[in-house]
Design a protein that fits this description.
HAT C-terminal dimerisation domain-containing protein, mainly alpha, HATC_C_dom, about 230 residues, extended, DNA binding, protein dimerization activity, 12 helices, about 0% strand
């Protein structure tokens, strides 16, 4: 069981780290702490790989990919007009604005809105403090919806990155000692696709069995013929 865990969870997919940074409660500093804690807690002896994993390198890779992705979105949407400001009429929305916009409003008074929407958008977001209490039902997508006028480019990233499908399988199936039908890192296949792969695999095995049956009697016949010729 331990070897299975070390096999599948020694590396954290970078897309998870990018999605983590797009959570306004955490961002980059908390991601670095989580990566350090993860490897120190689950892999203290670094026995999961022949090559030692450097948590700082893992963080730097996620950080670089996050900035590259932002630059791509900025090149595509940087000149787009900011979205219309949405207002909330419910009392729940007012309390949400109170803790979500507290630090943001203080910074916006000192920084013009046009400057926020330029290249300074990313630095403003990464230094933004969001007030929240642990255990609250914090809606990340709602936060981005309410702040998309201040962060037009990052809000587009926040809409697309969490929407990427994650392939999952049952724990009993993933850690089964019987092995996998397709591969260790298979995606979630539809029943028809899985049936096609299984049938194709069975046909290949049947073809090999047929070839072996055909070759074996031929070799046996040749051996008998040779022995018979020598005996004569």
């Amino acid at each position: 069981m331990k070897q299975k865990f070390l096999k599948y969870y020694s590396h954290i997919p970078h897309i998870y780290g990018i999605a983590f940074v797009l959570d306004p409660r955490y961002k980059l500093p908390y991601l670095a702490n989580c990566i350090d804690y993860y490897y120190a807690s689950f892999f203290p002896t670094q026995e999961f790989d022949d090559n030692l994993i450097d948590p700082k390198q893992e963080f730097n890779e996620v950080n670089n990919l996050f900035h590259q992705l932002y630059n791509e979105f900025h090149a595509q949407y940087g000149n787009a007009p900011p979205p219309m400001q949405r207002t909330s009429s419910s009392s729940k929305g007012k309390s949400f604005l109170k803790f979500a916009f507290g630090s943001l409003l203080k910074k916006s008074r000192a920084t013009p809105a046009t400057e926020q929407r330029s290249g300074n958008e990313l630095s403003l977001y990464l230094t933004l403090n969001v007030d929240y209490e642990v255990g609250d039902d914090f809606d990340v997508l709602k936060w981005w919806k309410e702040n998309e006028r201040t962060f037009p480019i990052l809000s587009k990233m926040a809409k697309q990155v969490p929407a990427m499908p994650i392939s999952t399988v049952a724990v009993e199936q993933e850690f089964s000692a019987a092995g996998n039908v397709v591969t260790d890192y298979r995606t979630r296949l539809s029943p028809s696709s899985l049936e096609t792969l299984v049938c194709f695999h069975d046909w290949l095995k049947a073809q090999r069995r047929t070839q072996e049956i055909t070759i074996t009697p031929t070799r046996h016949f040749m051996e008998e013929t040779t022995e018979g010729g020598e005996s004569d």
